[in-house]
Amino acid sequence: MESLLIVILALGLFHGEALGYPTKDESDVMIIALENEDMKPTILDCEYEIEDDPMFLTLKWFRDDKTIYQWIRGQQPAPIPEYKNEIDSSYESSTDPNKQYSSLALINPTISATGDYKCVVQTNANTFINHQRVQVIDTRNYTLQLNQVKIHNETQLECVVTNIYPRPILTIMSNDEDVIMKDIPRVQEDEDGYFNATTVVAVYDTDEDPDAYQCTVSFEGYAKNLTTFTISGSAGISHVDFNLWLFCFLYYLLSKLKVLI
């Protein structure tokens, strides 16, 4: 019965009290989640309509107001040398000669690809400007731990995440409402631009029932979170996919109860 209670507590975490900050939805931001070296290019389109055949057409892409790519109709496009390894200049976005090389194909992204992008198209008659925000997410080499220390009727929870980008939002959740203290999250940026963050909360519990605690790391505009959890009186489990762990735990529990054949 105690094991079953732990499972119920874990399932109920999402309905408990949030001890941190919510994630915002930024639908106008293009997310690049770094995975491996074989990622497909990220394409940024430049929207414009040319009614008449212009005498000339030039297009430039900027990142944070710095020129990174330019194209003159009738010629081959040219990324700025500093960015030649970040842009596929051979990518053709259209068979229309006025739009043939108008898109920006980002390859080999790193966290430095994060920024405000702008394309500027100029003809003898018109100027078109488009904006796009790009946010890189890098969680390939992170660590995540949720530690607890029991002192009398008070439990102190410390959530620590390291080597992550961008600046994370840490949220500790409890299956009850025995919160007596919240610490301001401490976030530090290292020399490579990655972040390490820690947040601490304290809970006050007067009963002997096990309680479940969960720490979630989230980012503005990104739907996927990183999660770890712990049960009061147990050691923290780090770098764990919560759904996978819960599935395995339920399978083990039901097999012990002889529900599964």
TrEMBL record:
Signal keyword on record: yes
One Pfam family from the record: C1-set
Keyword Cell cycle: no
Domain (Ig-like): residue spans on this chain: 22-135
Signal peptide positions (record): 1-20
Domain of life: Eukaryota
Keywords: Signal
Official protein name in the record: Ig-like domain-containing protein
Provenance organism: Drosophila ananassae (Fruit fly)
